[in-house]
Amino acid sequence: MTRRALVTVVIDGPLFALCWYLAFFLRTGDVHLGAQWGIFVPSLPLAVGTAILGFLAAGTYRPRRTGDVLDDFRRIARGSAYGFLGFVTATVFLQISGWWPRPLFALYALLLPFAGIVSLLLRLFFRALFTLKKKAGRERPVLIIGSGEDAGHLIREMKEDGARGLTPVGIVDEGNWPQGKEIHGVRVLGVCEGMIDFVERQEVDLIVLALPSAKSYQMRRLVSLCEKTGVPFRTLPPLDRLMSGQVMVNQLREVSIDDLLGREPVSLDWDAIRLELKDKSVLVTGAGGSIGPFETLIFEVELIEINS
Question: Helices 216-229 and 195-202: crossing angle, nearest 10°?
Fold first, then answer.
């Protein structure tokens, strides 16, 4: 479990305990719980423990996808259901389900989702404060994918010039460098498959794919891994667009469809095609990068026909 996940558990524990207390309070109407206090105290660790395990099983403590609020609520709903079912199962297995009135189960089941929502709001609040603090200090932790010469140039530039406040905090690669080795003072953390864990531990703000010579299938796999972290990612231009021995931070860009297609965009004689398509019905197949220009061309041909 990552450090951030442990912090979340520390936040959730008291919230789940509060839920169990509120269930008793709503049942008894007594702040001190009256005669139910002797039941509340010994049952509290079981209620909290099963709730934490339920939220853990639901993936609530895994890295959240940036901006995906629906995914957050789905995890909270699953965690509440798992936690409640785990609690009921444990009480039946331990033969202690008869300790308290049945309405307590229903009240606890209703309160657990609210605890998850409060926990999410607290995490988002503290993350926003942390982000503002980092922006004020102009430091953005960066994870580098790749251990080649271009990655080395990029890391050196970030460290020497402090370009755009980017600070390389770790490297992952395809296993070309052993874990623990360093490139210009930046440690190799492991292989790309462990990226999610590294992003959490290093509190990474940006991922850079320093693999300008990567094949299209490699890019697709790495982009898929990057998307799972919920952290923004950028890439370097292909080798033929880089100056030899010079990798500039301002050349970082978003991954484009051309990086994933595995080929250069097709250049066609659109004037000749336009004449050929005039007054004809056309079926366009495929879903690659060239379909967009064809759709635009067909639309233009239809306009010409209408105007004529």
Answer: 40
81 pLDDT above the threshold of 70 = yes
- The DSSP 8-state label assigned to residue 231 in this structure reads -
- Which residues touch 154 (CB under 8 Å, ≥6 apart)? 144, 168, 208, 210, 236, 247, 249
Residue 53: is its pLDDT beyond 80? Answer: yes
Show which of 106, 133, 160 is a domain's final residue: 133
pLDDT tens digits for range 263-294: 555 666 777 877 887 777 777 766 555 545 54
What distance lies between CA 23 and its chain's CA centroid? 34
Q: Give the structural domain span for 160.
A: 139-261
Domain boundary among 133, 165, 191: 133
Mean pLDDT for 221-242 is 76
